[in-house]
Design goal:
- By secondary structure, this protein is of the alpha/beta class.
- The chain folds into 2 domains: 5-16 and 95-222, HAD superfamily/HAD-like (Rossmann fold, 3-Layer(aba) Sandwich); 18-92, no CATH class.
- It is built from 10 helices and 8 strands.
- It has helices at residues 17-30, 35-45, 59-62, 65-72, 78-92, 99-108, 121-130, 158-167, 181-190, 201-204, and strands at residues 5-8, 47-48, 53-54, 112-116, 143-145, 174-178, 194-198, 213-215.
- The strands form 2 sheets. It has a 6-stranded parallel sheet, sandwiched between helices.
- Helix 10 (201-204) links the parallel strand 7 (194-198) and strand 8 (213-215).
- Helix 1 (17-30) packs across helix 5 (78-92).
- The termini are close together.
């Protein structure tokens, strides 16, 4: 297969979700002094307080920031809590092991890369900058579309279409790569060439029926599917 561009989800795809988000989420929840509220907030987000880890298919993984604010509104000031999480996540931002290698290989092969995330655009850009992927002289990511960029949120396909348009590539010449049902559905509805699921079976296996291809590690893009050769 050969694509002109690849549109990546961010969290769980390019970024290690657990390393980037679990500790910030845990610390933010603990700012609520009422322990019963802490548990309710954790349950709303899909976070296991006892194990300090995000549960598979948790709302905080696949819902947009505005959806999470609404979800948290009966319990706390959702906007403030999520802002605190985002601030701390920037300090903890961790790429999956193969992410930099894959982005570098795409850059050298003249295959453009974009990010379409249900996180907010400014927060996503801050994380990309922290990892050196948006440097002025050698940007490895040519477009970043967030849930507040004016194109809706996944699984709405308009975000994917906007990413392709920003790259100047027909959407049917793009691949969409993600770890959630929202990523895969958005790609399919947008009309991309292929949707690729990434992640271990215990985390993403229940989404496999939605994918054209399934890889366990992002680095497999460089070998199994020869996207960069």
């Amino acid at each position: 297969m050969q694509f002109e561009a690849i549109i990546f989800d961010k969290d769980g795809t390019l970024l290690d979700f657990d390393e980037t988000w679990d500790q910030p989420i845990f610390e933010a929840i603990l700012t609520e002094s009422d322990s019963s509220k802490q548990l309710k907030i954790a349950e709303a987000l899909g976070f296991d307080l006892s194990k300090r880890t995000t549960l598979p298919n948790a709302p905080i993984i696949h819902q947009s920031v505005s959806q999470l604010v609404e979800l948290l509104s009966p319990l706390t000031d959702g906007r403030s809590l999520l802002d605190l999480v985002a601030q701390k996540a920037k300090e903890h931002v961790t790429a999956v092991p193969a992410a930099d290698c894959v982005l570098q290989a795409l850059h050298h092969a003249n295959i453009q890369a974009a990010v379409a995330t249900n996180d907010e655009e400014a927060a996503a850009r801050a994380q990309m900058c922290e990892l050196g992927w948006l440097e002025a002289k050698k940007s490895l990511i040519a477009a970043v579309i967030g849930c507040d960029s004016g194109h809706g949120a996944k699984p709405d396909p308009k975000m994917i279409q906007a990413a392709a348009s920003s790259l100047g590539v027909p959407v049917h010449r793009c691949a969409m790569i993600g770890d959630s049902a929202a990523d895969l559905l958005a790609g399919k509805r947008a009309g991309v060439m292929s949707v690729i699921l990434v992640g271990k079976a215990e985390k993403v296996g229940h989404h496999s029926h939605l994918a054209d291809f399934w890889i366990e590690d992002l680095g497999d893009l460089l070998t199994e599917h020869q996207l960069c050769t």
